């Protein structure tokens, strides 16, 4: 706990992602704050810790390919832009930033992503925002047109599995979705091109697919191998987790509701989060880190909507 001269208070908390995901962690924080304010010691919704909920089937029968657990794009060499004549220094500096998008800006993004699209897909705010960020980051990095870039999205499986898992399940139900594209397609094609790829990838994450993923992992007892293969693609990819619908501002320890909640360290290139507004005004904030030079370029692109 850090107390500031102005009277403000900062509470820093860490959790291990193998044990619990953001949804379970926020439930813990909100329950903890209820107890701190003198509310019922027994939580009205006690956490569920039953690990058999995510047990593989017997026998395991994976029915789908799961490329996120196979050799990833992260192993491919980075192709610098053709006009880049300098090698990046080994001690690359990273800069973290927070970009706020108002309700009106988010609405404009949803309109923009539908321009020229004849499909019946109804793109979500998340889909529109994350594709816009991905495209801007790709431009800011100056990637070569033939360089492959990958969007990695964290998906909460609670509402996708059958039967559904309650929000107060204390465990890790996060699944990873990878959407690879060639840089030139992301930069030159209409926004709905990439948005449709993201939409299709998320739509695929139903009970059958997620159960298949559990079975796939069951057949690979050395999880270090499959875990190391998938995941975030540094310097050419973007990894986004959305906390936009989590009640992250309900943790009142007696000092009032928080004015900001977010991660402390932003030092992984292209790793970020989408956060809701503390004032519940419909805005969203995107928090992530990039190499400092790329971040400077991004600041000139991000609000061109």
Automatic annotation (TrEMBL):
Pfam families: Transferase. GO terms for molecular function: acyltransferase activity, transferring groups other than amino-acyl groups. Keywords: Acyltransferase, Transferase. InterPro entries: CAT-like_dom_sf, Plant_Fungal_Acyltransferase. It comes from the Eukaryota. Transmembrane segments: none annotated. Belongs to the plant acyltransferase family. This is Shikimate O-hydroxycinnamoyltransferase.
């Amino acid at each position: 706990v850090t107390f500031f001269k102005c009277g403000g208070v900062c509470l820093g908390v860490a959790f291990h992602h193998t044990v619990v995901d953001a949804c379970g962690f926020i439930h813990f924080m909100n329950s903890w704050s209820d107890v701190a304010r003198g509310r019922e010691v027994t939580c009205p919704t006690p956490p569920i810790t039953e690990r058999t909920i995510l047990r593989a089937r017997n026998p395991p029968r994976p029915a789908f390919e799961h490329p996120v657990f196979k050799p990833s794009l992260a192993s491919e060499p980075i192709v610098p832009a053709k006009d880049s004549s300098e090698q990046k220094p080994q001690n690359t500096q990273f800069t973290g930033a927070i970009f706020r998008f108002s309700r009106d800006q988010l609405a404009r993004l949803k309109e923009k992503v539908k321009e020229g699209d004849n499909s019946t897909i109804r793109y979500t705010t998340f889909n529109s925002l994350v594709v816009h960020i991905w495209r801007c980051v790709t431009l800011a990095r100056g990637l070569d047109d033939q360089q492959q870039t990958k969007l990695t999205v964290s998906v909460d499986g609670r509402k996708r599995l059958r039967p559904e898992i309650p929000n107060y399940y204390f465990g890790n139900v996060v699944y990873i979705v990878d959407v690879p594209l060639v840089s030139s397609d992301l930069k030159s094609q209409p926004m709905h091109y990439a948005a449709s790829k993201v939409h299709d990838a998320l739509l695929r994450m139903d009970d059958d697919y997620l159960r298949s993923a559990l079975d796939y992992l069951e057949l690979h007892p050395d999880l270090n191998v499959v875990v190391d293969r998938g995941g975030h693609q540094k310097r050419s990819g973007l990894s986004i987790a959305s906390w936009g619908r989590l009640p992250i501002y309900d943790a009142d320890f007696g000092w009032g509701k928080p004015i900001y909640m977010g991660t402390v360290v932003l030092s992984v290139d292209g790793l970020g989060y989408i956060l809701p507004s503390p004032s519940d005004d419909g805005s969203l904030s995107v928090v992530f880190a990039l190499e400092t030079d790329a971040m400077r370029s991004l600041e000139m692109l991000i609000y061109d909507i």
